[in-house]
Each structure stands twice: as structure tokens, then as C-alpha cells.
Specification:
This protein is an alpha/beta fold. It is built from 36 helices and 13 strands.
């Protein structure tokens, strides 16, 4: 019998609610299965099950988040002609394989595909004693088929022959059999259970993929739950335990947080649900806070009721105990890497396993203790709870594994690779080339792919008592994070460096760390804290007569004053910085300060002077080989040329900047330059070309998760649609832009986005909404210190001061 999808549910009757009604009828011993969205619900029937089915484990009343898996397995098992004779459901301990298999078994029985010949056998493959042997499994299956022990042949070979004969007889009679073998630990346990005869099916659950020569099976991997079903599982557990439990409705965010701390692993969620159900007065937020502490998370996820506690750690113990020593050592040492995943190259550095390492990592994958994501990438990831468990075992075997030496070697390797990439990119000056160094493309690719690991490694080095390694790595990593606009990572690293400096560094080191933190806080629009850090740094530098540090602090303070539209104060700060850098004869620093000074001149309306300053800035930084800041300077020069009405020249300079940042592999800056090019093209009426550039910029910003850039680009897209006579499309773009920029601290771009929204609302003849948006834009411009733009918005919107 081929599996057929159920007919669509009938439409809801008027006034019946938002969810479609689902109608079904059960007769006799049948049960009702409802598949709704992302979960499966069972309602028990009234009649007794057929005798053979009495051995089936009870299916969960609600199986959250497994609708797709249920559909896939039913398709594989249901088709007598084209299905799979053997299906293995594999996944991490506690991921819900047994619950899924029980659901499938009951569903198959309800559909009548196998009559009452649905046989379930727990193999206990991960029990300390190894569970049932293959021969014992065959013996148990004969019992389920109605063969008494006294009627079974005395030898394993004889029993296997009888088992196969029984299944063959069913097949000749046109009757199908489903064998559900739960918790197999090896192919040996299930090899002889493979049913002979067309139409029979063997459904196996295992933590292992059960890959072995000659054992043919269709494998279905079961992953953790999605966020929504994970939270639903928790809420459902509370409602089942306590009718009217207020926590699901009162603390949905806390339950969602618990689900994330549980890694959305069903076993962990079940334990967390039991902890909450067992203490009805415990706020969900309190348990979420306990689980937020990674060092004690596994201990918290333990429910003690009797001599044998139920918990995640106990489940993982069974998987770990089966690992050969070599694999167990690799499993433990992989957790020295503090990042979210580990490349094969770093795994080799950690384990010292240069030959055949991939095969050993693949063995951990087959054991569901590791995953390669994406497949073929050579990047290996553990589930969060598995990682915590492996780290615990790593600390337990630290001396045996030489863990401290591995940490030193790993950090040294990161420093070595980061230094080589930084030199190739020329992050602090001229590019280095030569034998043993990566290409520019490889350097960017390497830093991009390892960014999360490198950022985490700075904090890891501090935590493990290696401040020197932390500072060395941060010093190499910081310029890349700053110039390639990985702002939040920049801030995290800079905070670590400041903490180390305050703990044991000199006053000069503290001042330098304060400056570096202030610099990246400006990138993140955290202006108030940036000003505090820079004021403290300036005081330290002046007290110690550290002129270069004083000049750098003044330069950045000039930028802050400019952001606040305090242009006279900004001019004074930049001139002070320029005086110091010229005195010290540091052309690179002078060029950087000139770019900020040029921006102030531009804002003061001194366009020709600004353009000249930008050109000198680009020349100075280029003279010392800093192609990054030279490219950025070209983009700023193009802005000044556009403001001066020199559109064709501005566009040519932007194209120069675009070529430069593309050569450097700086995709974030490429997006900003493309955004600027689109504005220049719009000025010249070249809307189609502008749209093409905007679409590429949007894709790059979205890829990087840059809300500032994406919001600014959407504002320009809205302008393009408005000028093209498409106000509805313009409105959608402006509304998205405002939503992205809200709360980012980027007051200038948010002000512009809201003003553009107001203009589009006016074009749509929605005057009240337009006036409200103009007033909001005016408030934002006022907060940003742009009194001229504020006045214009108030005049148009009719607000105070209009």
C-alpha cells in the first residue's frame, strides 16, 4: 500500500477562530493523528490495541517540531514497492529519536499498512552491558512473532533461519511487517533483523549512523528543535503538569531563553520542564538565569528523584564511554578551541593528528558527537551541551592530554597565522609579500572564516592566565576588525585589552587601551562612552607627556565633536592633533587627522579647502603604503566633490575607491562605496544603474548583518522609487530603513531616513502622517546637534519653532 498524503483540512467556519478546524473519526481500536503546522498530536482511541501492538511504547501525546520528519519517515516506510527496507534515524543522545519512532509505529498501525504486525524491540545498545546481542535480538523478535521459547531452535543460526522464514511466509501472504529496533549501538545488533521479503520494513534508532560495508540503509538525521517548537515543548510540559500554570503566558521570553540554553535538545527541555513543574513557584526567569551560567549548566540540567538522576550529562556519559581512547582524546581536545566551530587545520594543531584526522573526526560525526557544517567545509561543530560536556572531560583529563601545552601551542598558532595575514593585508602600513605568506585573497578569507574563533581566543587567553598572548593577538586582530567593520567584535576585543591593561599594565598601556576602545565605540555609535574613554586617555597621555597618544586622542575627539555638530570644537581638536603629528613627523597619523579635518571644513561650507585637505590626506596615507585608509579617503573625497556640484569627478573618484576596496577584499566597505555610487548615479538621472548598485550593496550589508548600512541603502532605494514615480515601493523601503536604524545610535542616518519617510508620505497625500514623521525627524536631528536640518523639518511639519 502506497502512502498517500491526507486531504486538506476543511476551511474554518465563520467565527470559529484563526486556526483551521481538523476533523477526523476513529473507530474500534484506531487512534487519531493530527499533523498541524510543526507538530503532531495524538488523541487516544477507545478500543484495545491488537495483541501484537501491546508491546509498542506509548507515543507522546504531542510531538513538537517533527512534522517534516514524520512525513519523511511515513513516505519511506509506507510505499511497499519504492520505499526503503531499512531506515536508520540517527542523532545526538536526547534528540527525541525514540519518541519519533514510537509516533511512527503507532501511525503505521493506524493506517493499517502492517496490520497488527508492528513489532517494537528496545535494544539498549548504549547500556553499560552493551544491551542485546544480535542473536538475542532475533530470539526476542521470534517471541514477538508468537514463537514460544520451547518451539525455537536451540542454535542462533536456527533461530535466524526461522525468523527469516516467518517473514518470508508473511510476504508470500501479502502481509507486511514493521520492526522497530530502538537504541541500537552497533550494526551487529540489527544486521540479522533486516527483514527478508518484499514490503517488510526495519526502522532503527541509534546515536550512530550505523555505516558498515554490506549494511544498506536509508538514513534520516534528527536535529535539535527549531526555536518555536522548543519553547512550545516547555510550555506544554508546564500545562500538562499544572492546569492553569501561569508561567507560559506570563514568561514567554524566559521560556524561550531556557530553550536556547538547553540548545533546543528535547531531553534537556524535558529536564528543564520537570524542574519547573516540580517547583510551581519557581519563576522561569530564575531558571533561565541559572542556565545562563555555562560552568554549571549541565549540573543544573539534572532532575533527581530516586537513586538514578535523569540528566543530560548521564545521557552523554553513555555515548562518551563507547569512544575508543584516540577518539575520546580528540573529542576532549577540540574544546580548547573557544570559537563556535573548528577548522580541520586547527583540529590538527590541537590534537597533533596530522595524518588521517578527517577520518577520525568523521567517526565522531557518525557517533553524533560532532557535525561538519556545512558538509564538505572542513569546519566542525559540537552542540552547545556536548561542548560543555567535552570540556568537563577535558579538564578531568587535562594532565593526561597535556592540555596546558595544547593551549599554548594553539594560541601561538593563532598569533602566527594572524600576523601573517595582517602583514599581507598591510593593516598597519605597507603590504608584505614573499615565500610562506598567503595571498591577499587567502589572508582575507582566513581572517573572515576564523573571526569568531580569533575574537573568542582573546578572552580565552585572559581567562586561562595568558595575558601576554591575549594582548599580542588583540594587537594583530584589532586593525582588521576595525577596518573591515566588524564593530561588535572590535568592541569585545578592546574591552578585554583594557581589562588586562588595568589589571597589570603601565599607565601608558591603559591610555592606549582606552584610546583603542574609544575608537571602536565611535564605530558602534556608542558616543557617550567613547567620549568618557577618550577624555580619560587624553588625561593619561598629557600627564605622561606622551605626545603621540595625545595627538591620537585629540584626533578622535575631533571626530566625536563633528558627530555632535560641534564643528568649531572639532576644528580646534583636529588642528591640535595635526600640530602634534607634524611636530613628530608622522605622515600616516597626519594623513588620518587631515581626513577628519577635511570633513569639518566640508560641514562648515569650505568646500574647496575640504577637497584639498582630502587629497593631501589620501596622498600621505598612500605614501606609507596604507591602501585601506587611502581607499576610505577617496570615498570621502568623492562626497566632498559631490557636495561641491562636481558630480562627474565625484563618480570617477568613487569608482577608484570601489576598485581599491574590492582588491582588498573589504566587502563591508565595498557596500558603502556602492551605496555612494548609487547616490551619484541618481544625481545624474541614471536610475537603472543606481538600482543595480543599490541591490548589490543591500545584499552585502545583509550578509554582514550591518543594520546601519542596510538602513542607509534602503533610504536611497526609497528615494529612487519616489523619483521614479513609485511612491508605494518608496514607502516600503523607507519604513524598513527606519526600522533597521531605530535604536542603533546612528542618529544622523536615522534622522535622514525618517525625513525621507516624511517626504514620501507627503507625496502619497498623507499629510497628517507626513507631519508626524517630519516632527520625529526634527527631534532626531536636534538630538544629533543638526539645528539647520531640525529647523527645516519643523518648518515643513509645522511643529514647534516652525
Amino acid at each position: 500500500m502506497a502512502f498517500r498524503k491526507p486531504k486538506p483540512a476543511p476551511e474554518p467556519e465563520p467565527g470559529s477562530g484563526s486556526e483551521p478546524a481538523q476533523w477526523a473519526r476513529a473507530e474500534g481500536s484506531a487512534r487519531i493523528t493530527q499533523v498541524a503546522g510543526d507538530y503532531v498530536r495524538y488523541e487516544p482511541g477507545a478500543g484495545p490495541l491488537p495483541p501484537t501492538l501491546l508491546g509498542l511504547p506509548e507515543a507522546p501525546e504531542v510531538l513538537f517540531g517533527r512534522g517534516a520528519a514524520v512525513e519523511e519517515l511515513l513516505t519511506l516506510l509506507g510505499d511497499a514497492d519504492g520505499g526503503a527496507p531499512v531506515v536508520v534515524v540517527a542523532g545526538l543522545a536526547g534528540v527525541g529519536k525514540t519518541a519519533l519512532a514510537a509516533t511512527i509505529a503507532h501511525r503505521a498501525a493506524e493506517l493499517g499498512w502492517f496490520g497488527d504486525r508492528v513489532l517494537s524491540l528496545p535494544l539498549r545498545g548504549y547500556a553499560p552491558d552493551g544491551g542485546l546481542t544480535g542473536a538475542r535480538a532475533v530470539q526476542e523478535m521470534l517471541r514477538l512473532l508468537g514463537v514460544r521459547d520451547a518451539d525455537q531452535p536451540p542454535s542462533p543460526e536456527g533461530r535466524l533461519a526461522l525468523y527469516r522464514a516467518r517473514l518470508a511466509a508473511y510476504a508470500r501472504a501479502g502481509q507486511r511487517v514493521l520492526v522497530v529496533a530502538d537504541d541500537a549501538g552497533s550494526v551487529e545488533q540489527v544486521r540479522d533483523l533486516v527483514p527478508a521479503g518484499d514490503g517488510h520494513r526495519l526502522l532503527v534508532t541509534s546515536r550512530d549512523w550505523l555505516v558498515f560495508p554490506g549494511f544498506a540503509a536509508q538514513r534520516v538525521g534528527l536535529d535539535v528543535l527549531a526555536a518555536g517548537p522548543a519553547a512550545q515543548l516547555l510550555a506544554g510540559a508546564l500545562r500538562s503538569a499544572w492546569r492553569g500554570d501561569p508561567r507560559p503566558e506570563r514568561e514567554p521570553a524566559a521560556l524561550a531563553g531556557i530553550a536556547e540554553h538547553c540548545g533546543r535538545l528535547p531531553l534537556a527541555l524535558t529536564v528543564a520542564g520537570a524542574l519547573l513543574a516540580g517547583d510551581p513557584g519557581l519563576p522561569a526567569a530564575e531558571l533561565a538565569g541559572q542556565l545562563a551560567e555555562t560552568r554549571t549548566r549541565l549540573a543544573t540540567l539534572t532532575f533527581e528523584d530516586g537513586d538514578v538522576p535523569l540528566g543530560v550529562r548521564a545521557a552523554f556519559d553513555l555515548s562518551y564511554a563507547r569512544l575508543p581512547e584516540e577518539q575520546a582524546r580528540i573529542f576532549r581536545l577540540l574544546t580548547v578551541n573557544p570559537g563556535p566551530d573548528c577548522s580541520t587545520a586547527h583540529a590538527a594543531l590541537l590534537t597533533g593528528e596530522a595524518v588521517g584526522l578527517r577520518r577520525k573526526l568523521a567517526a565522531l560525526v557518525r557517533a553524533s558527537l560532532l557535525a561538519e557544517q556545512p558538509l564538505g567545509s572542513g569546519r566542525w561543530r559540537m552542540h552547545d551541551l556536548v561542548r560543555l560536556y567535552a570540556a568537563e572531560r577535558g579538564e578531568e583529563y587535562a594532565e593526561h592530554d597535556g592540555r596546558e601545552g595544547v593551549i599554548d601551542a594553539f594560541l601561538a598558532g593563532l598569533v602566527h597565522d594572524t600576523r601573517a595575514s595582517a602583514e599581507v593585508l598591510g593593516l598597519d602600513g605597507r603590504r608584505a609579500t614573499g615565500p610562506g605568506l598567503p595571498s591577499l585573497e587567502a589572508a582575507v578569507r582566513g581572517l573572515d572564516s576564523e573571526r569568531a574563533t580569533l575574537t573568542a581566543a582573546v578572552g580565552f587567553a585572559v581567562e586561562r592566565g595568558r595575558p601576554a598572548a591575549a594582548l599580542e593577538l588583540a594587537g594583530l586582530l584589532g586593525p582588521y576588525l576595525h577596518l573591515y567593520r566588524h564593530t561588535q567584535d572590535s568592541i569585545a576585543v578592546a574591552r578585554q585589552v583594557l581589562a588586562v591593561a588595568r589589571e597589570g599594565g603601565s599607565r601608558e598601556a591603559v591610555g592606549a587601551a582606552l584610546y583603542d576602545l574609544g575608537l571602536v565605540l565611535v564605530d558602534g555609535y556608542e558616543v557617550a562612552e567613547a567620549a568618557e574613554r577618550l577624555d580619560e586617555a587624553l588625561g593619561i597621555f598629557r600627564a605622561g607627556s606622551h605626545r603621540r597618544g595625545e595627538g591620537k586622542a585629540l584626533n578622535l575627539l575631533g571626530t566625536l565633536h563633528g558627530m555632535a555638530h560641534s564643528f568649531e570644537e572639532a576644528r580646534v581638536a583636529f588642528e591640535g592633533a595635526l600640530e602634534i603629528f607634524r611636530e613628530l613627523r608622522i605622515p600616516h597619523a597626519e594623513g588620518t587627522a587631515l581626513a577628519g579635518f577635511a570633513n569639518v571644513l566640508e560641514r562648515l561650507g569650505r568646500q574647496d579647502e575640504a577637497i584639498d585637505a582630502y587629497r593631501r590626506s589620501v596622498a600621505l596615507v598612500a605614501s606609507v603604503g596604507d591602501r585601506h585608509r587611502a581607499a576610505f579617503g577617496l570615498d570621502h573625497l568623492a562626497d566632498a566633490l559631490r557636495t561641491a556640484g562636481r558630480h562627474e569627478e565625484s563618480l570617477a573618484v568613487r569608482e577608484q575607491a570601489l576598485a581599491a576596496v574590492r582588491e582588498l577584499g573589504n566587502r563591508s566597505m565595498e557596500a558603502w562605496v556602492l551605496n555612494g555610487i548609487s547616490v551619484s548615479l541618481l544625481d545624474e538621472g541614471r536610475a537603472d544603474e543606481a538600482l543595480a548598485r543599490l541591490e548589490v550593496a543591500l545584499a552585502l550589508f545583509a550578509e554582514a548583518g550591518d543594520r546601519h548600512g542596510e538602513g542607509s541603502t534602503l533610504s536611497n532605494l526609497g528615494r529612487l522609487h519616489r523619483e521614479a514615480g513609485r511612491p508605494a515601493e518608496a514607502l516600503a523601503a523607507h519604513e524598513r530603513a527606519c526600522a533597521l536604524l531605530a535604536g542603533t545610535g546612528d542618529r544622523h542616518n536615522e534622522s535622514v531616513a525618517v525625513r525621507d519617510l516624511a517626504i514620501t508620505l507627503a507625496a502619497l497625500d498623507r499629510p497628517a502622517e507626513a507631519a508626524e514623521a517630519f516632527d520625529r525627524a526634527a527631534d532626531l536631528f536636534a538630538a544629533a546637534g543638526d539645528t539647520e536640518a531640525e529647523a527645516l523639518c519643523r518648518a515643513v511639519g509645522g511643529g514647534p519653532g516652525a
